[in-house]
Design a protein that fits this description.
Strand 8 (about 90-95) and strand 9 (about 100) form a beta hairpin. The chain has one helix at about 5-20, and strands at about 30, 35-40, 45, 50, 55-60, 65-70, 75-80, 90-95, 100, 100-105, 110-120, 120-130, 135-145, 145-155, 160-165, 170-175, 180-185, 185-190. By secondary structure, it is mainly beta. It has two domains: about 1-80, no CATH class; about 100-190. It is flat. It contains one helix and 18 strands.
Length: about 190
C-alpha cells in the first residue's frame, strides 16, 4: 500500500508539531536534498552554521525514506528509516553524534533483522542478528567495544561460530567452513 505524498507531508507536519515541545526554540525541519545542508566532517551545517533540527529524506515517489534529529551539528536523538513500501527499516539512537542505546532493524517482511546495543559509540551488551525468515544468525556479547563471546548459526540451524574471549584470545569455534555444499539435497564435498 502506497501513501500519497500529501498524506506523508501532512503526517510529518503533525508529527513535527507534536514534537515541537521536545525541540529547542529556533530549530528547523529541512529536506536532506537542500543544497544549504553541508556535511563537514562529523558536523552538519545549514547556512554555514551548526544545524539543529530535523532532517527528512524522501523517495522519488514522495514517501519518507529517513528522519534524523540533530543538535549543534551532531546526530542527537532518534534516526528512523523506512523501506519504499512504508515498512520501518531501522531505529537508531544517537547522543551528541555517538551511537547510544538500542539500535534495531527489520527486514522488508517485518521480521527483525538486528538489535545492537551501544554505549558512548561502542558496542556494549548484546549484538543480535536474524535471517529474513526469523531464524537466529548471530548473538555476540560486547563490553566497552570488545568481543566477549559469540555464537553464529547457518540458515539450517547448525552452529558455525561459538567462542569466548579471555585475555584477548578466542577460545572455541571461531569460523567453521562448510566442507561441502548442498545442491538438490546432495552433498558435494570440496
Amino acid at each position: 500500500m502506497r501513501i500519497p505524498r500529501t498524506v506523508c507531508l501532512l503526517v510529518m507536519l503533525l508529527w513535527m508539531t507534536h514534537c515541537s515541545n521536545t525541540m529547542s526554540p529556533g530549530t528547523t525541519a529541512v529536506n536532506k536534498n537542500n543544497p544549504e545542508l553541508q556535511q563537514q566532517g562529523k558536523f552538519l551545517m545549514y547556512h554555514d552554521k551548526l544545524f539543529s533540527g530535523l532532517v527528512t529524506e524522501f523517495y522519488e515517489t514522495g514517501e519518507i525514506r529517513s528522519q534524523s534529529r540533530y543538535e549543534e551539528g551532531l546526530l542527537h536523538g532518534e534516526t528512523l528509516t523506512w523501506y519504499l513500501s512504508g515498512v520501518k527499516e531501522s531505529s537508531r539512537l544517537y547522543s551528541q553524534g555517538e551511537k547510544e542505546g538500542i539500535h534495531q532493524g527489520w527486514w522488508p517482511n517485518g521480521n527483525q533483522r538486528f538489535e545492537y546495543q551501544f554505549a558512548e559509540g561502542q558496542y556494549h551488551g548484546t549484538f543480535k542478528e536474524w535471517y529474513e525468515n526469523g531464524k537466529p544468525l548471530h548473538l555476540f556479547t560486547y563490553a566497552d567495544g570488545k568481543e566477549v563471546s559469540a555464537i553464529g548459526w547457518r540458515d539450517n540451524g547448525k552452529t558455525y561460530i561459538n567462542f569466548m574471549v579471555r585475555n584477548g584470545r578466542k577460545y572455541g569455534l571461531t569460523n567453521a567452513r562448510l566442507c561441502y555444499s548442498l545442491i538438490n539435497e546432495k552433498g558435494i564435498y570440496q
